[in-house]
């Protein structure tokens, strides 16, 4: 516990640089892109690191199915897969930045954890 307090105190000295890096991180997160697919590629969804859906593509086969519930399920599955992938990428980017400041893994400081659906 005291070790973590010492690390946090050390971080306070670097606060201006941390803020600058956080701004750069936010820009990088917006540039991250991940894709998810479902139904053997019948539905594809692309999202960015800001958890925004960039594209949703439905194949001709997906449209011919005529099963609304199945199509909704595939869209949800592809979207969730894409979001999971971009969250992983975001966590890696955030971890790299945090490691550069000596922040130990697992220390959840506000602003240094990737966005979640509840955020």
Which series of helices and strands comes N to C?
Answer: HHEEEHH
Could you describe the largest sheet, including whether it forms a barrel? Answer: 3 strands, antiparallel
Task: Give me the count of strands.
Answer: 3
Structural class: alpha+beta
Low-confidence stretches: none
Radius of gyration: 19 Å
Strand order, main sheet: write it out: 1-2-3
What does this structure look like?
The structure is a single chain. It is built from four helices and three strands, in the order H-H-E-E-E-H-H. It starts with a helix and ends in a 19-residue tail after the last helix. The chain has a three-stranded antiparallel β-sheet. A hairpin with a 4-residue loop joins strand 1 and strand 2 (43-48). With 119 residues, it is of the alpha+beta class. It has helices spanning 2-13, 15-31, 60-65, 68-100, and strands spanning 33-38, 43-48, 53-58. Helix 2 (15-31) runs antiparallel to helix 4.
Q: Which characteristics define this entry?
A:
57% helix; elongated; 119 residues; alpha+beta; three-stranded antiparallel β-sheet
Helix-strand layout with pairing:
Elements: H1 2-13, H2 15-31, E1 33-38, E2 43-48, E3 53-58, H3 60-65, H4 68-100
Antiparallel strand pairs: 1-2, 2-3
Quick gist of this model?
This protein has helices at about 1-15, 15-30, 60-65, 70-100; strands spanning about 35-40, 45-50, 55-60. It is of the alpha+beta class. The mean pLDDT is about 85.
């Amino acid at each position: 516990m005291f070790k973590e307090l010492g690390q946090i105190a050390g971080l306070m000295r670097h606060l201006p640089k941390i803020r600058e890096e956080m701004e750069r991180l936010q820009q990088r997160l917006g540039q991250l892109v991940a894709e998810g697919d479902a139904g053997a590629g019948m539905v594809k969804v692309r999202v960015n690191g800001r958890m925004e859906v960039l594209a949703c593509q439905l194949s001709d086969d997906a449209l011919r199915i005529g099963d609304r519930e199945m199509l909704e399920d595939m869209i949800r599955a592809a979207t969730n897969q894409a979001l999971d992938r971009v969250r992983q990428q975001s966590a890696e980017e955030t971890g790299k930045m945090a490691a550069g400041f000596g922040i130990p893994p697992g220390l959840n400081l506000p602003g240094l954890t990737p966005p979640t659906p509840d955020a």
